[in-house]
Amino acid sequence: MNSRRSSLLVLAKMALADGKVRPEEEQMLRELLTDGEAVAEFLTEAGSRPLVAMLHPTPSYPDRFFICLRAANLAHVDADFDLREELLFRRLVRQLDIQAADRELIERHASGATGAEDHLRIETLHRQSSFC
Q: How many of the other CB atoms lie within 10 Å of CB of 112?
């Protein structure tokens, strides 16, 4: 499994975490897909696999950061960040070895409470990532 597919499966897993895939979450996933890919395919696969099996080895810290950032944003898009999503997010942070300060930054960003320093850190990591 390549890192792109792995990232999409992680996002699908987050969408499934609270037991209901909202239209906003489905739309976020759809925007990341290419022709021939379907949201339902990723949701089905993510629902049948444990998180650890979906995580492709990602040596790049900026890439791991953006996987977590996107997952947090997806979990917050429906304004219903529940305990199951929180627990999955915390597992993802541990599995991807996200630094504590960056975890806090991701949480601030997902809740819409970032400042200028936060934006600078995100921009810096974005330029260093393969998502650029």
A: 7
Quick: pLDDT tens for 11-31.
999 999 988 899 999 999 999
pLDDT tens, position by position, 22-78: 999 999 999 999 889 999 999 999 999 998 888 888 889 999 999 999 999 998 887
Q: If you search the block for the tokens 């950032």, which residue do you land on?
A: 69
Considering the entire predicted model, what is its pTM? 0.89
Is the distance from CB of 10 to CB of 63 less than 8 angstroms?
no
CA 95 to CA 28: how far, in whole Å? 23
Residue pair 6/55 in contact (Cβ under 8 Å)? The answer is yes
Tokens of 24: 């906003």
Amino acid, res. 129 = S
User: What element of type H or E holds 26?
Assistant: helix 23-32
